[in-house]
Amino acid sequence: MTPFFEVDKKIEIASEQAMKKCAQQFENIEKTTEYNQLKVQAAFIKHNISESHFCSSTGYGYNDRGRDALDKVWATVFGTEDALVRHNFTCGTHTLATALFGVLRPGDKMLCVTGTPYDTLHNVIGISGNGMGSLKDFGILYEEIPLKNNRLDYNAIKNAVDSSVKMVYLQRSRGYELRPSLLVEEIEKAVRISKAENPNVIVMVDNCYGEFVERNEPSDVGADLIAGSLIKNAGGGIAPTGGYIAGRKDLIEKCAYRQTTPGLGKEVGATLGHNREFYMGLFHAPHAVGEALKSAVFISALFESFGYKTTPAYDDKRGDIVQSLELENPESLIAFCQGVQQGSPIDSFLTPEPWDMPGYDSKVVMAAGTFTLGSTIELSADAPIREPYCAWIQGGLNFHSAKICAMLAAHQMLERGLLK
Description:
By secondary structure, the protein is α/β, with parallel strands linked by helices. Helices cover 38% and strands 13% of the residues. It has helices spanning 9-21, 23-46, 65-78, 92-103, 122-125, 154-160, 184-197, 249-259, 275-305, 330-342, 399-415, and strands at residues 82-86, 109-112, 141-144, 167-171, 202-206, 225-229, 243-247, 309-311, 323-326, 364-367, 380-384, 390-394. The strands form 2 sheets. It has a 7-stranded mixed beta sheet with strand order 1-7-6-5-4-2-3, sandwiched between helices. It has a 5-stranded antiparallel beta sheet with strand order 8-9-12-11-10, with helices on one face. Helix 7 links the parallel strand 4 (167-171) and strand 5. Helix 6 runs parallel beside helix 7 (184-197). It is globular.
């Protein structure tokens, strides 16, 4: 197949067969990518974005027109009243925490309807880590509704949402769970049920890994707040850091007061030269997401052919870019991640090993040869070393690079006698 990488012939043949299986899915992805690309392009044109919007500000950052226009472009793309897009959101968890602390007050109740949230939010909510300044420490109540057969339990949501619930919270992606990620149509139904029971309830969606996967976003179907990281889908592989919150104007103002300080909010915050990267990242994001989706579909088809269970299956409808592989034992899991690392453009010479990663309750192995540290719109593979020994794969800035990484991962497993 290529003079640049050594891959066993069996894997090359399996790759060719997987590509044939993926043809229809690739065509569907291209249509969605084109729709979302035009949506973003139209938003740039609507707000007359020019070279002057890329200028840097320092100090207080007063009257940074690039920063303010970026918020408007973002709100237009995501169909919201306002947005808060900032480089000093350190990660997705920080962004989500800012939104939660921004709009919830002592005595309010947060109801998560997608089961237990992602590991790094446990300390934020107060599920663990008491005394660390969690929502629980500030007197904010928390309840959750387990999923039913890995799907939203709409009857339980209907029965749980009453006047005591201030926020209904949904996590679109699955984290380290094997449930399907949420489709926008499922979020729409949850919003409709919640608002029918309590018209004043705030519906917030953790949109990480979900941006531009479908034509609509949760904010298009009634979610009051959505939030995510710029080193995932929405930054297009160009934004070097940061996060976004988009939604109702009054709620964004409260989030901005939490992000800076009450009374100042969005009026301050120097951009320090990041505006150009953020505009370019958003412009490239639909295409980057399309490449990541094609990568996920191919990896699923390839490893299904080897006899592994994959979630989603290659031809399933997807709500995010994440692909999981049940590799059945820790040795295969580690070998897979090490094979992905070998094909990465950055740090290919390193060997990933399991370690105690902050915010997780078990050792994690992570392959991430990325241009931006921790960027998961670029190809990465990570997994907690615990049953059922699944690898979670995200990203792929371009499909062909991700394709060879997947083949090298299979080759690494084959070399060690681990490939089924």
